[in-house]
């Protein structure tokens, strides 16, 4: 596949006046995370014109994965003794067209292609989208775009690492509409090492492409810190609901919010935006804290949606079969239900929650319906969205509001 790294700046954006005062930017940029080229012909490339048809950021992002895969598996280690290991890390190149076409991936799919690119790519695309909002078009060079795409894929790889391990710990069956990696017959618990291979690949990509950049150390520290924060969140999650030990007294809203903050919000929301901020030269601790304040709240909103969809979502749309009830998960639904139920209802919940038989699961869902959990969720969703708007107005004083508003729009009322 050809690497096509050209782009267009064809949609106006609104920047906060204080940001414009501090940074006299030109005000043309593609739409955040979903920019498309609607015309054929020339486009901007380092101030010159390209005669090739232009690609949207998502198309550029997909195209970059092929190059990343080649780099990791064909151009890195040259030791012939590693041929089998590197073959496991990749998949036959012919199947890569699945990224741009709706082909079915062959059963021989290997680690990277099976686990990394199958999601919505919101985290990865947020890096290039945010960078375009922060820099004037003249500074968004071809090299800057390529590095942003690669850092975005590093975040997608980090996500894959977390999910591969999480699926094993949770005993999950499906992920993104296909069997979890460890559930494939020839994989099993080898998936633990496979997940570590994916994580290790992140730092090879960062070193190769960003080592000579002034933000390299910031990215290394950010990825390391975010990984540790996420692992702390996973630890709390496992401790709160250990296998075979059902104790609903541990399910408090305070504990729930701490789990969500560390397990989801840091890597899903703060990491992509903070990466782009460092790449744009924004190192101010104050600005990063302002962004973090908004993005962590957004991450909590996102996880509560996930918990709701685990119970009420359509598996054909979400790509996974919800098992939070069977897995004794400290989810928003059960924590909120515990706040509003009667002692009798609590006894019924304690008798059924965390059991895997269909009758117990059905009773828990019936209890949720009695407590009108769907209505309580929709009320929360609306209140949370309004709260996010206020946080953006209060804390994004020197950053483009569009960074956060577009994030909010993408997750509000989502169904997967």
TrEMBL record:
Report keywords, A-Z.
Lipid biosynthesis, Lipid metabolism, Magnesium, Metal-binding, Transferase
Q: Name one GO molecular function term.
A: (2E,6E)-farnesyl diphosphate synthase activity
Tell me which family the UniProt entry assigns to this protein.
Belongs to the FPP/GGPP synthase family.
Q: PROSITE patterns of this UniProt entry?
A: POLYPRENYL_SYNTHASE_1, POLYPRENYL_SYNTHASE_2
Name the pathway. Answer: Isoprenoid biosynthesis; geranyl diphosphate biosynthesis; geranyl diphosphate from dimethylallyl diphosphate and isopentenyl diphosphate: step 1/1; Isoprenoid biosynthesis; farnesyl diphosphate biosynthesis; farnesyl diphosphate from geranyl diphosphate and isopentenyl diphosphate: step 1/1
This protein's record includes keyword Secreted: no
Q: What is the lineage of its organism?
A: Eukaryota, Metazoa, Chordata, Craniata, Vertebrata
From the Swiss-Prot or TrEMBL record, give the protein name: Farnesyl pyrophosphate synthase
Concerning InterPro entries, the annotation shows: FPS1-like, Isoprenoid_synthase_dom_sf, Polyprenyl_synt, Polyprenyl_synt_CS
Q: Name one GO biological process term.
A: farnesyl diphosphate biosynthetic process
Could you say which EC number(s) this protein's record lists? 2.5.1.1, 2.5.1.10
- Spans through the membrane: none
Cofactor entry:
Mg(2+)
Q: Under the cellular component aspect of Gene Ontology, which terms does the record hold?
A: cytoplasm
Tell me which species this is from. Menidia menidia (Atlantic silverside)
Q: Which reaction does it catalyse?
A: isopentenyl diphosphate + dimethylallyl diphosphate = (2E)-geranyl diphosphate + diphosphate; isopentenyl diphosphate + (2E)-geranyl diphosphate = (2E,6E)-farnesyl diphosphate + diphosphate
